[in-house]
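Entry type: protein chain
Record version: 2
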Amino acid sequence: MDIVFNTEGIVPAKRYASWRDAICDVYVNVEVDATKPEEYKGFIRESQFGDVVLTDILLSEQRINRNRQHIARLDKDCYYLHFLQYGSVNVLQHGSTLHSNAARGAIFSATEQYELQVVGEGRAFYLEVPRDQLASRLPRNAIPVSAEINTTQGLGRIAAEFCASLAMESENVKGELRSGLGSQLIDIIALALMAGESDFPALDGSVQRARLRSVQQWIEQHLGEPDLRLERIAHANNMSLRYLHMLFRQCDMSVSDWIWHRRLQRSYDLIARRDGRSITSIAFEHGFNSSSHFSTLFRRKYGIRPRDLSRSD
């Protein structure tokens, strides 16, 4: 993720003033009031996935207010959604107060007045999601002004985990894949909002599809690692081996077969481009530790040898 702002390297006396300027530049115009400005510290790191902006942010205790004058200068129509890694934030909007923490996320509208009360130090992933993109995925009567999302189970947990994975692997995700991941994240958020607190059994099929997609994206980001064991995949995605195998029944393919399938597909694409890299280096880059094994699997799947593809017109 790109570092947008960090109080480190700024003399303590100027940190809070610098932070106030950074908030107004990075987000929409707001008023910021820190509890202890002389002790302020924070940072903002940002990455974009298509229409979704993902921010990793550290906040000291403060209040953030957005009023009618700020809204009048609004240049975008979006929602903000935060998943706290630690700390607590109260979101006051439209006569309601949402209490967010590591177990509950919150979504709120940038086009309505709001107040954020950051209680103590907190760190969170913030998402900026275009309003029309989210609204198009929801029934008209389910489009919120603000809402809480349970991040301890079901689709809320999937959304929070997906968000954390995107932040962690941001530098390794390139090109069109970034836009696709952003769109998938909006899909999951919309499902989480529709599911509410008690409808998870009714949406079990949607939960499993979203969970499978989340796991597949994690695997995609680690395809180049030869020792990509199923135990590690299950552990990294907070599930049992049995549940991992169950998820992949939706693909009519085992987890291991899907991994080799994607490794071969990506290798095929790179070899076909003939960008100057050797076949051996491409194979090793995608998790194969033997060029002969790679050639055997490649020929079995595509009916030609890798070197024949690299020479074809």
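Comment: The mean pLDDT is 84.
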